[in-house]
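Retro notes, structure queue

What went well: the backlog is down to a handful. What didn't: a couple of records were mislabeled last round, so from now on we paste the full input next to the output in the thread. Example, using Chloroperoxidase from Aspergillus pseudoustus:
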Amino acid sequence: MKFSIQSILGLVGLASANPHIHDPHHWHPPGPGDFRGPCPMMNTLANHNFLPHDGRNLTRAVVVDALKSGLNFNASLASLMFDMAIVANPQENATYFTLDHLNRHNVLEHDASLSRADAFAGSNHIFNATVFAQTRAFWTSPTVTPEMLANSKLARQIVSRAFNPTYTFTQSTEQFSLGEVAAPIIAFGDLETGQVERELVEYFFENERLPTELGWTAKADAITQEDVLRISGMISAATNLITDAPTETGATHARRGDLHAGLRV
Ligand code: HEM
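Corresponding output:
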C-alpha cells in the first residue's frame, strides 16, 4: 500500500485534531452486556477502560492498577479497598468481583445514597436525577465544603427514613457512607481544606466520567489511607448539627427544669 506525503500528514493532522484516537482511556459509555453498579467511580473507571469496560473479572491486580492509573491511589490503599469489596461476590473464596455484584442490597450497597434510589423505591444502582437533585440542593455554592456534603448526606438519610419503611443504615454502613461522601473531595478536591469545585463533582456524577475536559487531572502525590481517614473524619465531624452558642448573647448557661432542658438535670 502506498502512502502519499499528504495522506501521512493528513493522518497526523487527524490524530492531533482527535487526540482520543491514541488515548486508551478515552471515555465510552457502557454498551449492551456491560455491567455497571451503584458506585459512580467504579463505573467511571470502567467507562474510561481503567477497569475492564465490561465491568467483569475485577481481580486485586486489576483494581489496584485502575485506582493507581486513573486516580493515583497508592497500592496499599487500593488493595485494602479490594479486600473490603470482595464480599460482594457471593462465591466463597472469590478472587474477583464484578460491578454487578456491587448491586446486592445491604452487602455494600445501602439506602440513602447521594445519587441512587433506595432498593425499596426502584433501581438501587442506576443514576437517579431526582435523588441527585435532592443531594445537590445542599451544595449551595460553587465551592462545596465538607459541611455541604454532610448536609446532603443527612438529608438523604432523613428522606429515606421518612419514606422507606425498610430503611436500614447500620454502624458499618455509616463508616462506608462517610468514605463515599468524602470521595468527591478525595478524587477532585483539596485534601487540606476539604473543598471541591461543585462543577467537577456534578459532571462526574451525571456523566460517570472523569472531569478532564473541565481541567481536572489526577493528584501528583499518591492518595493514601491516611488521606481517606482524614477527609472521612472531616465529613463525620460536619454531620454534627450542634453549634457553639452565639458569643454576643452569652446564652451559654445550662437550662434546667423545663421542657427545653430535655433529659438533662
Ligand atoms: C474497590 C473500589 C470500590 C468499590 C468496591 C466501591 C463500591 C461502592 C459501592 C458498593 C457503592 C454504593 C453505596 C451506596 O449504596 O450508596 C459506592 C458508592 C460510592 N462510591 Fe465507590 N467503590 C470503590 C471505589 C471508589 C472510589 C475510588 C471512589 C472515588 C474516589 C468512589 C466513590 C463513590 C461515591 C461518591 C459513592 C456514593 C454514590 C452515591 O451515594 O450515590 N468509590 N461505592
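Agreed that this is the format going forward. Reviewer comment attached to the example: Residues 38-42, 63, 67, 71, 81-82, 85, 102, 108-110, 113-116, 180, 183-184, 186-187 surround protoporphyrin IX containing FE (CB under 6 Å).
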